[in-house]
């Protein structure tokens, strides 16, 4: 079998070289990066693993996020390795590899949460940082359990989302895409001095939603705040809030303008 041409820098195995192999050819790993197995076979260690969590049994409205990891990988074929805005080649700074998809029970949400937590632990227990492609936001709870365990303490959270996701239950169910941060607060997984929602907008069920959210320790930077303050000011505020705490970042796709996502 022919060796796959790759863009390798700083001793890191990088993405397939799209100037020598068409981007539409071959299996779609994230950004056409090597798999974890390929890196290990070459004698390397993985600094950052990208792993899919194809699960959407926790949604209250539209399903389909289970196909998210597949479509993110397909779309990421177009990524090039150099970022002119930051003047860096990110994949030359750390060894990034695709770890495939988690195997998650699609019928039993309690089993699914356990599945995500266990497989996250398997990746991070050796010191590898995990980037997870969802999947609905139910997966945040088991990922926070794993992150807090690996950090040995509650973690800071910066949560990019149109919604709070700190509600209590839906139809009496405690584990849904709208409840992960309340469950995480109840379990003591988050550093309550270092929590923030970013990009929040839209209607709520009532003022108690905001009262509960503040009680859990979250600050809110709404989409209107971002427009008024500008990105640089918002980023500096987040740095001051998080400081040097271990950080979990969650990005829900609906933080983007609904015209685009």
From TrEMBL:
<feature type="binding site">
    <location>
        <position position="165"/>
    </location>
    <ligand>
        <name>Mn(2+)</name>
    </ligand>
</feature>
<feature type="binding site">
    <location>
        <position position="163"/>
    </location>
    <ligand>
        <name>Mn(2+)</name>
    </ligand>
</feature>
<dbReference type="GO" id="GO:0046872">
    <property type="term" value="F:metal ion binding"/>
</dbReference>
<keyword id="KW-0479">Metal-binding</keyword>
<dbReference type="GO" id="GO:0008783">
    <property type="term" value="F:agmatinase activity"/>
</dbReference>
<keyword id="KW-0378">Hydrolase</keyword>
<keyword id="KW-0464">Manganese</keyword>
<dbReference type="Pfam" id="PF00491">
    <property type="entry name" value="Arginase"/>
</dbReference>
<dbReference type="InterPro" id="IPR006035">
    <property type="entry name" value="Ureohydrolase"/>
</dbReference>
<feature type="binding site">
    <location>
        <position position="137"/>
    </location>
    <ligand>
        <name>Mn(2+)</name>
    </ligand>
</feature>
<dbReference type="InterPro" id="IPR023696">
    <property type="entry name" value="Ureohydrolase_dom_sf"/>
</dbReference>
<feature type="binding site">
    <location>
        <position position="254"/>
    </location>
    <ligand>
        <name>Mn(2+)</name>
    </ligand>
</feature>
<feature type="binding site">
    <location>
        <position position="161"/>
    </location>
    <ligand>
        <name>Mn(2+)</name>
    </ligand>
</feature>
<feature type="binding site">
    <location>
        <position position="252"/>
    </location>
    <ligand>
        <name>Mn(2+)</name>
    </ligand>
</feature>
<dbReference type="GO" id="GO:0033389">
    <property type="term" value="P:putrescine biosynthetic process from arginine, via agmatine"/>
</dbReference>
<feature type="region of interest" description="Disordered">
    <location>
        <begin position="1"/>
        <end position="20"/>
    </location>
</feature>
<protein>
    <submittedName>
        <fullName>Arginase family protein</fullName>
    </submittedName>
</protein>
<comment type="similarity">
    <text>Belongs to the arginase family.</text>
</comment>
